[in-house]
Amino acid sequence: MWIEAGNGESGVWNCRSNYLRPILGLVLTALLVSCASPKPKTDQLIGNWICGPYSMKVKNLKITVVDRVKYDPSGKYNELSDVMIKTADGDQVAMKSTLVGSWRLDGKIIYEKFDRGEILSSDNPRYSVASGQKALDAELFKKNWAKKQVLELGKRLVVKPVESMYKEAEVVVSCVRPGS
C-alpha cells in the first residue's frame, strides 16, 4: 500500500491500494449515517402520539394494536391501547387497556416503567375483563418496564422494542401526532 501526492499543483491524493478504498468507503458511510441520525431530543418526544396499527403473531394468536401514548414533560407516561386478538380457531376479542407510569429518554432509547395497568373493556365474554386483568397483572409482575429504540423522531416517531419478553413483539412501530 502506498499513498502518493498528486502532481504537486493540485494537491490531490491518489490512493493506490486494493483495501484502502473500501476502508475509506466504510468510514465515510459511518460518518454519513451518524450525521443523518442525530440523537433525539426529549422535547421532540413530549406530547401525544398515535402508534400503529401494528401486528404480531404469538403462538396461535394474531394481535393487532393501536396505542395512544402521552409522554408528559414531568416524566409521567400514559398509554391507552385498542387490542384485537384473533385465535387460530377463528375466535376474536377486542379489548381496551391502559398503562400508567413514567418515562425517560437516554440517547436513542426510551425507557418506560409501568406502575399499573388496567383492562378497561372486552367485547367477548370468553375473554372477560377479569381474566384479562389477571393476565396483565401477571405480565407486569414479571416485567414492569419497556425499552424502545428510536429509529426516527420528527414529524413521526418510529420505534422498535428491545429486550422484550417476547421476540415476536419486537416489531417496528410508526407513530404520528393526533390530527396529522
Outline the structure in words:
The protein has 180 residues and is an alpha+beta fold. It is built from three helices and ten strands. The chain has helices at 20-36, 42-45, 129-142, and strands spanning 2-5, 13-16, 47-58, 61-71, 76-87, 92-106, 109-122, 145-153, 156-162, 173-176. An eight-stranded antiparallel β-barrel has the order 3-4-5-6-7-8-9-10. The protein is globular, with a radius of gyration of 23 Å. Mean pLDDT is 83; it is low at 1-36.
Average pLDDT? 83
Report the principal-axis shape. Answer: globular
What is the overall number of helices? 3
Tell me the span between the first and last alpha carbons: 55 Å
Residue windows where pLDDT falls under 50 for at least 5 positions:
1-36
Q: Helix proportion of residues, in percent?
A: 10-25%
- The tally of strands reads 10
Mind summarizing the main beta sheet?
8 strands, antiparallel, barrel
Short characterization:
The protein is an alpha+beta fold. The chain is built from 3 helices and 10 strands; from the N terminus they run E-E-H-H-E-E-E-E-E-H-E-E-E.
Topology diagram in text:
Elements: E1 2-5, E2 13-16, H1 20-36, H2 42-45, E3 47-58, E4 61-71, E5 76-87, E6 92-106, E7 109-122, H3 129-142, E8 145-153, E9 156-162, E10 173-176
Antiparallel strand pairs: 1-2, 3-4, 3-10, 4-5, 5-6, 6-7, 7-8, 8-9, 9-10
Q: Can you give keywords for this protein?
A:
3 helices, globular, 10 strands, alpha+beta, single chain, 8-stranded antiparallel barrel, 180 residues, two-stranded antiparallel sheet
